[in-house]
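Try this one yourself first.
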C-alpha cells in the first residue's frame, strides 16, 4: 500500500475494528515518523507499520543508461527530458538502522515485513519493543524461514494479489501459488497463524480463507478506492473501468514484478526483456519520472496502479463503512 496508504485510511480502518496499516517502506525516517504520529493522532487502536526488506540493488551503469535511453522518446512526448542517471530511491530496512531505531522508539503494535526478512538482531529488537511481527510469504519454504526467524505470523500472499510480489529472491523460480492453495498448505504445515492475502475483496472471500485455516485476511486493493486513500483520479478511474478486469504482472515500472491495472506503462513493459530492467527500486526512479511527466500533460495511464485480480469487486466506500460491510458479509457467509 505504499503510495496510497495514509494516516486517515489506516486510522479509519483501525477505529472501525480492523487492523489499519501504514507503509513506511518508501519513506525517509522523518516522513515515517510523521506518518506514524499522524496516525496516532487519529486512533488509539492497534496499527500495522509495513517496511520493505528487499536486497539492496545491484547497480549496473550500462543497463541503467540503456533503460533511460529506452524511455527518452516516451518522455519527449510529454515535453520532459530523461534523468541523467537513476537513483536507488529508498533504502531497504535490511540496512536502515535509523528506521529500526524509530520503530523501536514508536513501538507500533504490529510491524510487517515485505520482500524478505531482516536479520535476527533486528527482529529481536522489535520483539523486545513489544511489536507483533508479520512477514509476507509466497511459498512454504519462505514461511518456514519466517517461523525459524522468530516472526509471530505469516501473510500468505497469493499470486493474484495486487502490488509487488513478495518473493524473497526475485531471481529464483516462483511457483505462483494462488491464495487458496497457499493458505491451505501453510495452515496445514505451520504452527504459526496464517493471514491470507490476494484477491480478497468481500466477506465471502474472507469466509473462504478462514474455512481453509487462515487466522485472518489482509485486504489491500479493496481499500484503494476509499476516499481516505491517496490514490489519484487516474488510478480511481482505472479501478472503475475495464482495466480492472485486466491486471498484469510487470517489472518495467519498478524493477520488481508487481500486479498492476492494465495501462499505458504495462503495455510498454510487455516488450522489455527482464534482463534489461534495472534492479528494484532503481528502475522505479525512471517509472516515477515518466508518470510525473505524463500526468502533468493530463495523461493518467503511466502510474503504478497496483491492484489484485479482485479489482472489479472494488467499492468506493469510506473505509469505516467498508469495514462494516465486510463484517456484515462475513457474518452472512
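Now uncover the answer:
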Amino acid at each position: 500500500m505504499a503510495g496510497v496508504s495514509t494516516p486517515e485510511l489506516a486510522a479509519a480502518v483501525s477505529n472501525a475494528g480492523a487492523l489499519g496499516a501504514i507503509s513506511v517502506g518508501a519513506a525517509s525516517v522523518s516522513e515515517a515518523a510523521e506518518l506514524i504520529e499522524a496516525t496516532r493522532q487519529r486512533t488509539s487502536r492497534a496499527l500495522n507499520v509495513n517496511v520493505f526488506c528487499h536486497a539492496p540493488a545491484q547497480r549496473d551503469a550500462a543497463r541503467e543508461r540503456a533503460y533511460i535511453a529506452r524511455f527518452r522518446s516516451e518522455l519527449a512526448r510529454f515535453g520532459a527530458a530523461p534523468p541523467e542517471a537513476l537513483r536507488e530511491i529508498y533504502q531497504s530496512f535490511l540496512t536502515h538502522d535509523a528506521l529500526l531505531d524509530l520503530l523501536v522508539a514508536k513501538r507500533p503494535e504490529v510491524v510487517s515485513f515485505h520482500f524478505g526478512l531482516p536479520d535476527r538482531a533486528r527482529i529481536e529488537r522489535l520483539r523486545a519493543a513489544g511489536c507483533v511481527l508479520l512477514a509476507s510469504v509466497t511459498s512454504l519454504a519462505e514461511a518456514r524461514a519466517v517461523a525459524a526467524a522468530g516472526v509471530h505470523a505469516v501473510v500468505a500472499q497469493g499470486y493474484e494479489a495486487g502490488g509487488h510480489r513478495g518473493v524473497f529472491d526475485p531471481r529464483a523460480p516462483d511457483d505462483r501459488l494462488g491464495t487458496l492453495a497457499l493458505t491451505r498448505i501453510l495452515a496445514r504445515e505451520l504452527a504459526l497463524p496464517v493471514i491470507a492475502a490476494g484477491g480478497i475483496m468481500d466477506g465471502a472471500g474472507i469466509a473462504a480463507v478462514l474455512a481453509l485455516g487462515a487466522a485472518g485476511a489482509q485486504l489491500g486493493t479493496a481499500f484503494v478506492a476509499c476516499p481516505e486513500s491517496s490514490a489519484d483520479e487516474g488510478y480511481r478511474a482505472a479501478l472503475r473501468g475495464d482495466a480492472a478486469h485486466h491486471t498484469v504482472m510487470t517489472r518495467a515500472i519498478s524493477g520488481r514484478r508487481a500486479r498492476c491495472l492494465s495501462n499505458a506503462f504495462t503495455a510498454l513493459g510487455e516488450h522489455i526483456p527482464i534482463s534489461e530492467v534495472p534492479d528494484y527500486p532503481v528502475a522505479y526512479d525512471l517509472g516515477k519520472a515518466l508518470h510525473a511527466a505524463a500526468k502533468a500533460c493530463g495523461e493518467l495511464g503511466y502510474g503504478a496502479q497496483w491492484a489484485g485480480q479482485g479489482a472489479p469487486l472494488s467499492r468506493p466506500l469510506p473505509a469505516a463503512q467498508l469495514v462494516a460491510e465486510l463484517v456484515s458479509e462475513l457474518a452472512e457467509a
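Discussion: The chain has a mean pLDDT of 97. The chain has two domains: 1-56+91-230+314-333, 58-90+248-306.
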